[in-house]
Every structure is written in C-alpha cells, then in structure tokens.
Write a structure and sequence with these properties.
mainly beta; 5-stranded mixed β-sheet; 12% helix
C-alpha cells in the first residue's frame, strides 16, 4: 500500500472510530430500585428518595402529621434529612438502577444492592434505604 492509500483509508475510518467511543450521558434525573420499592429523584440541588413500603423507622425522624412518608433527602454537602412532606416519587416508568449499579449525580453517589440503596455525598454523609432498613450516617 502506498502512503497515500494508507492515509485515505485512515481518514475514511476516522469517523467510524470516533463514533465508537460512548458519548457522555448525564445520569437520569429519576430512578428506582429493581424491586420498585425505592424511588429517587434529583430536584432543586438534592436527591430525594422514598421507600414505598418500610418496616423500620430512621433515627431522627421528626414527629410528622400525617405520618412520615418514608422520604429522605441528601444534598452534595451536609447530612441527610428526613422531611415530613414532599411529593410522592413513585413513577413506574423511571430508570431501573440494577443491583451492583451506581448512580452518580452532582456530588451524590448511590449504589444499588439487593440489601437496599446506599447514597452518600462527598463529605461521607448519607443514608441506606430498603424495606427493612432506614439508616442515616
């Protein structure tokens, strides 16, 4: 092959090779665990997660009227919060974050495991949420 042919072939393949690289895609703004019990949404600078059914209560949950809705909130800095009110997060069409997968947002990371969902910010604060466990750390 002559140098001209090699250059022509390389130039012809360049767009194909470049397109083989995955493009950056931001994380979906909302997701759910494979069981469908925990739904989360990134909104107004915080990740909010809600357990649809739960047997445990998180420490530090305020006395809410009506009862606490299983809602946790985490910002990129500071401790996790347990708000008494908030819109229901359940949406069956949300992205399913499979077991062993990670969701990485702006300063908050969540890991989906069979034991539940664990979310933490860069300061190491966060929560673990599942049907049987609601832990703040």
């Amino acid at each position: 092959m002559t140098a001209w042919v090699r250059i022509s072939v390389a130039m012809a393949l360049a767009p194909v090779l470049a397109s083989a690289q995955p493009a950056f895609q931001p994380p979906p703004p909302a997701f759910q665990t494979p069981s469908g019990n925990v739904h989360c949404r990134w909104d107004a600078g915080a990740l909010r997660c809600q357990a649809q059914e739960f047997d445990a209560t998180a420490p530090g949950v305020p006395s809410c009227t009506p009862p606490w809705p299983g809602l946790l909130s985490l910002r990129p800095t500071g401790h996790a919060e347990t708000p008494c009110r908030g819109a229901a997060l359940r949406n069956e069409d949300d992205f399913v974050l499979g077991y062993g997968a990670r969701w990485i947002g702006a300063g908050v990371t969540c890991e989906s495991e069979e034991a539940g969902l664990r979310c933490a910010n860069g300061a190491g604060h966060g929560f673990q949420i599942s049907r049987s466990r609601l832990t703040l750390f």
